[in-house]
Amino acid sequence: MTSRKLDGLYRQVIMDHYKNPRNKGELAESNVTIDLNNPTCGDEIHLHLKLDDNVITAASFTGSGCSISMASASMMTESVIGHTEDEAIHMAHQFSEMVQGHDHETIDEYGDVEALAGVAKFPARIKCATLAWKALERAIYEEKMR
């Protein structure tokens, strides 16, 4: 597939997650929540996780922001469900490396997340893409500190 077609496909995936976000809404059974915002652009996320024996069994988000921010939150919640806290932290680190344009492990198994790799070409959008993942990291770290 040509680079141009691949970019178009990735844009479609991002817009699908933005217009039809997965796991958006309150999570009544959550036992970990965190609020984070990007003061530069105003994006905000309220992340809700349900952790059972260090495994993320459910994840959802509410908030508002640009298409990149909200699509990333949708993709993140889909990809981390069923993973341990440590696996989710690893995923967040890999995601951060990817959107900064650094070499990273293949993240095909993370679902649609790879569609956001093109964000590396737009440094101002990196914070938008990583907001949900930073919220995930902070929520897990704070939970471990309890």
TrEMBL record:
Report domain NIF system FeS cluster assembly NifU N-terminal positions.
Answer: 10-128
Q: Which source organism?
A: Listeria fleischmannii 1991
Coiled-coil ranges from the UniProt annotation: none
Spell out the family assignment given in the record's similarity comment. Belongs to the NifU family.
Q: Which InterPro entries match?
A: NIF_FeS_clus_asmbl_NifU_N
Q: Which domain of life is it from?
A: Bacteria
What processes does the entry annotate via GO biological process terms? iron-sulfur cluster assembly
For this protein, what is any one GO molecular function term? iron-sulfur cluster binding
Q: What is this protein called?
A: NifU family protein
